[in-house]
Every structure is written in C-alpha cells, then in structure tokens.
Write a structure and sequence with these properties.
Two copies of one chain form a homodimer.
Chain A lengths: L18 H12 L4 E5 H18 L2 E2 L9 H10 L4 E3 L2 H9 L5 E3 L4 H5 L2 H6 L7 E5 L2 H14 L3 E7 L11 H13 L3 E8 L6 H17 L6 E5 L15 E3 L8 H5 L10 E12 L2 E4 L18 E2 L6 E5 L4 E4 L12 E5 L3 H5 L4 E6 L2 E7 L8
Parallel strand pairs in A: 1-16, 2-9, 3-4, 4-5, 5-6, 6-7, 7-8, 8-9
Antiparallel strand pairs in A: 1-10, 10-11, 10-15, 11-14, 12-15, 13-14, 16-17
C-alpha cells in the first residue's frame, strides 16, 4: 500500500455506488479489523476551517501535532497557513524538525529530555533556532539553561501560566514575571512569551491574569513576543483574551466524540473512525467488538460508553478488555451479526492515534494509502 | 544501548551502594523520563514461580504473551518449561513464530485476520502446524474454514466457553458441543479442545459446565485434547477445575497494582516500573508527573488512583492528561520537588507495555540494555 508522507500528493480514490459498504469491505479484505481510518477529505476541511478561524480573528495558527504525530499532516497544516506547530514532547519536535517544520513550541516542562542530553542534541541542530520550550518553575529553567550552555544556543522560554484548569503553569502573575526575569537574565535562556490553556469558564479572570502579568513584565522592561492560548474547545472564543498572538488547537484536525459533546465539532467533522468487526454475540443483549483498550484506549472523557457506534447508536460500549469492546445492545432495535463491520467514533482521538504505527487513509470511499504516525510513542 | 533479544544472554550489572538512587540517576541521564523499566531479576523469579506452580499442579504452562509481546521474554518462558504461548492477535502469533515458538493458541475470534488473508498466509507457513485458534460462533468457524481451505492446512479450533465472566465464549454446553462438531466435521477445521477464563467465583458451576460439555462431546465421539484455563488471579486455584490440561497466565511475568490488589502478587513481584519525573509543583497540594495516559494509560482496573508511587505512597494520581499525571499530595507528609524521579507501579501492566517500542532492562540496580516489544500495536 502506498505510504503517504505528504498529503500534497493528494491521492484520488475511485467513487463507488455505496461508499460505506464498499469501504468496509475493502478495509476488511486488505488491512483487516480493527483498523484506524482517517478520511482525508474531512481532514482537508478541518485543517482549512481551523486556519480560517485563526485568520478571521487575526491570530496566528499553531496547531498542536500531538493529535496526529505525523509529518504528512504537519506539512498539510503548514501549507494551509500555520506559522508552526506545538508539540508535547521533545521526540515529537525532533520528528517535526525532520519534516522541515522549524517554528516549534514544546508545551511541557521537558526535564527528562533536558537531563538525558537529548535537548542539548536538538538545540545544537542548525534548524533548531525556532524552538521554544515551556517552563513553570525555576528548576525547569535551570535544566534548560544547562542544555543551552552545553549546546551553545540559548533556550527560548515560554512561561506557562495556569488560567483556571489547575494543570501545569504558575498560578500568579508574580510567579510568571519572576520566571520571565530569570529567563531574560540568563545568557543561556531568553524570554519568548506566555503560554496558557484557558479554562473557558472565566475570561475576565484570565484577562486579569494576563494583564497583570504583562504589567509586571513591563515594569521589568520585558515584553512577551508570543502570547499563546490553547484548546480546540476554545476556538469559539478566539480573540476573547485580548493580547493573544497565537492559538494552539490539536484535536480539531480529526475531532472526536468529546469534541462533539463539547459543541466544538459535528459528527461529520470526525475524520478518524475505528472500523471494528463484531466478533462475538454470545447472548441477545450483548456483543463484542475486536477493538478494546489497546485500540480505542480507556480514555473516557466523561462520556457514557467508550465510543459511538455509527450503525447502532443505541449500543453502549460499556467496558473493555485489551482486545475486546463489550457492547450492551439491550436498547437496540436492530442488532449486529457476528462478522459485521461497524464504525466507531472514539471518545478521545489523540490517544487512539498514538496506539498505531500508521493510519489507513481513505478518500471518497476508497483506501488510498497509509500515513505513518512518525512520533508515535515519543515518551521523552 | 545493547538490544537484548534473548534473555539467556543474562547481562550482568554493576552493583552499587544505593541502587535505587543510582538507577534513577542512570535512567535520567541515559534514556530520560518517563521510562518503562523492567527488572530482569524479578522477571526471572516470576517466570520460575509460574512454571513451578503449573508443575506442582501437573498442568501445562502456556503463558499469555500479550503482557510482554516480546521475543526475548517468550524464549525465557519456553526455556523455563512452558509448552507454548497464548496470543490475543494473529500479529502476536506471527512474532512468536518468528521467535521460534510454534505451539501457539490465539485466544480470540480473529475475523479480521481471517478475512484479510493474513491468517491464510500464516497457516501456509511450515512452522504453523501447532497453531490453534479460538472460536465461539459458527460465523467465526466459517471464516477459519475458508482460510484453512485457502492455505491447504486445517485450522485447529479451540471452542471458547464462558464460565462466568460474560466476555467471549458460548454460554451453554450444548452450544460448545455444536461448535466442536462443526469443527470436527469440516475437513478444513479440526477440534482441538475447550478454552475458558473461569470467573473464580463459582467453581462448581464451572465444573458442571465443563463436565456437561465433555459428556456431550463423548456422545458425539469427540474428545477435547486440550482443556485450557486462564488468568493470573486463578493461579491460586490451579487444578481446581478437574480435567484442566493447561493454564494461561499473562500478567504474572510482570505483575501490577491490580494483581497486588487481587492478592495474586506482592509489591516485590512487580517487575515493571515506570520511572517518572515530577515536572511541576504549581501549588502545595498538587504536582505533575511526566507520565500521563500516553504512558500509564487510563486503565484503572477498579483501583483508586492511576498507579502507586513507591516514594510517596499517600500521593494519589487522580487523573491524566496525555503526557501529565496529576498528583494529589494533600495526604503526604513529605512532598517531592520538581525534578525528583519517582517510581510508579502501574495499575495495569499489559497496556503499559503496549505503549512503548522497547523496555529498559535493569538488573541488580543497573541498566543492562533494552528489550524490543516486538508485537507492540498488533491490531489484527
């Protein structure tokens, strides 16, 4: 099967009369089930929609590649107008540099990568001048500074601010300014800006946090070149946080059941579908899919059931074994036979992509190739 | 780093005065965090203990390789006395055949593998005569028979029986006997035996199911050459089901927090540990690990928290982001600093192994190489 490393190759599929059935049959006959399948036409539309939303808000688009982890999709996002990419691991940034994308932001404290020498090696690459790294503590900055010294290239630091989600990030403007000053005053670091993932719950609070931080920075003679917000659910509020220069959205390239539930996407926007065969129907009210926690993962995302079965919308995937998805069919008028292939919209697409070495690419109802998940399993 | 493909190479580690700290330092400096680390000495003991338990019960040992997915560990289990291996996917069986293990049982209805041609290709291998496949429906048997015809080698069928867990498996002895007869009467199939995963809750019920099935088989002139039970928690009841010829245990090679909670292992028996750095301590009562759902997975296994932190036993990993583990430290007297490396016993080890392409192997407190997870991500 053709390996698609650049979506600009734009494969053409053969149209069929009944594309859904024909595609199921083709998947079953060629790659078998379960299969993690991406519809490139839906991806095209999702990539264009994200870019258009950012353009309309006059905010730069920095898609988060943790969702797709693929050079081919990265190139497609850049071609559509993205200024660069966000990553969550240094291993992801390495793959993106190899794909020719240089404006990269790693959005986590990467202490493991800093202390094992991999960060130094990346910083020493000629194409690494656009790399920016997040930090929310002096300890992380010290590790980055050491790597910067060792590599002979200062580390550009994004100070991560917690604006309501209680994840990583400093919780006060004073701490943010303190870290910015450390970065600005260390010759092995430089201060690049502020990074946050707004909760979406209290924009006034977030604005106050940002404004207070910027005021403290100004007092210290510092400016935040980049003010980066994140989150696909926050796309509907692009520009609401005054001062934002760029936005990071990952999931919107594929979307999933969580995004549909959050109102951030429609079902038709879900580009990634797991095709799975019904492999057991031991009793009338239950059945088993050949996709379990090693395919769909146990990420539930607060939803009922582990995925939506498009053909049996009243079926509930109640729990997983590693290779089995247990279906409760008691609410279903029609019920699948053993051997039937169904399409499952996963709850959380980012973790599903990370389970497979390659995605099956389809367009117009036909398989057109496979797309390597280049940074799959990047731990460090 | 040395790639260990056969544990018989038995690497020797250098002893140190403070092995835990020295190992943490070595891991941080060489591979970074998070790191999925296996202690080969604990594996040796676990492999020997499983074999001894089976020997004592006079039941053949067929370890389930879905836990380790690795040729090196497979060879170690065979060397210790295992008759063969259980697999959950055909792709796993392919890897084990490549490792020279031929007595293989695939314990699921593999319709995807049967219908895409991969099963036919495997059956046509000269080394595939020991392959056995589970089935719990006539539809699965029909797919297997087609593959057997295409390959010119009959498929040896294990009829899967549900003895209490409501997973796959026929729910009555009559159904089991019906499938056995179909297999026995089709020239492209043969009947090899019965396979089950006892619930451990009602052995009398399980015994009655088995005895009734065997009586029906005898009426039809059939015998079950293999009667295969499964489950690491069932090791304490080996031989309780009269007639059992072999047992399948997967998790016991590494063990995990679920097995400790079930009383099937002690903490010292847990061979696989995730070494993770504390990367954020934004507030006094919370902290963040660099291991999230893309490392430890969201499989909770009914336990409180997503893993046990050996250094901070009162810390609770409350929830994950993809690359972050959120710690509630409010119950901890001592609390970790940013940069500290901690050891996490995962809730469910089988899914953690499947996240990584290789495991870091240690012995006597030192890194001795890496072990490829050869069948990682085998979907079909």
């Amino acid at each position: 099967m053709q390996v698609l490393t650049d979506l600009a190759e734009r494969p053409v599929a053969k149209p069929t009369d009944d594309p859904v059935s024909a595609l199921k049959d083709a998947i079953m006959r060629t790659v078998g089930t379960p299969a993690v399948v991406v519809d490139l036409a839906v991806v095209d539309a999702n990539v264009a929609r994200l870019q258009a939303a950012c353009d309309a808000a006059n905010i730069a688009n920095r898609p988060h590649m943790k969702t797709h982890k693929s050079k081919a999709f990265a190139r497609a996002q850049i071609a559509a107008g993205a200024i660069g990419l966000a990553c969550q691991k240094l291993g992801e940034a390495e793959a993106m540099l190899d794909a020719g994308v240089t404006d990269l932001m790693v959005c986590t404290n990467i202490l493991g990568a800093a202390r094992c020498g991999r960060l130094t090696a990346v910083l020493a690459r000629p194409d690494a001048s656009g790399l920016k790294l997040a930090a929310d503590s002096a300890a992380t900055l010290a590790a980055y500074a050491q790597a910067g010294r060792d590599a002979g290239r200062p580390v550009r630091v994004m100070v991560e601010c917690d604006t309501g989600r209680s994840r990583a990030g400093v919780v006060t403007p004073t701490e943010a300014a303190t870290l910015a000053k450390i970065a600005a005053n260390d010759p092995s670091l430089s201060f690049a800006g502020l990074m946050m993932y707004p909760s979406g719950a209290d924009w006034e609070r977030d604005q106050a946090f940002l404004d207070d931080t910027l005021a403290l920075l100004a007092d210290a003679g510092l400016t935040a070149e980049i003010i980066s917000t994140g989150g696909t659910p926050n796309l509907s509020a692009l520009g609401k946080l005054k001062g934002t220069t760029e936005h990071r959205s990952g999931t919107s390239i594929f979307n999933d059941r969580m995004m549909v539930a959050a109102g951030a996407a429609s079902e038709a926007d879900c580009a990634l579908i797991v095709y799975s065969a019904v492999v057991s129907r031991a009793e009338a009210d239950r059945g088993i899919l050949d996709a379990g926690s090693k395919t769909l993962t146990s990420d539930r995302g607060g939803l009922t059931g582990h995925g939506l079965i498009l053909e049996y919308r009243d079926a509930v995937i109640t729990h997983f074994s590693e290779e089995h998805g247990q279906m409760d069919l008691s609410a279903c008028a029609d019920r699948p036979e053993v051997g039937e292939v169904v399409r499952v919209v996963p709850n959380h697409v980012c973790v599903v992509v990370n389970m497979v070495d390659q995605l099956v690419a389809v367009r117009d109802g036909a398989i057109v190739g496979v797309i390597p998940v280049d940074a799959r399993g990047a731990l460090v």
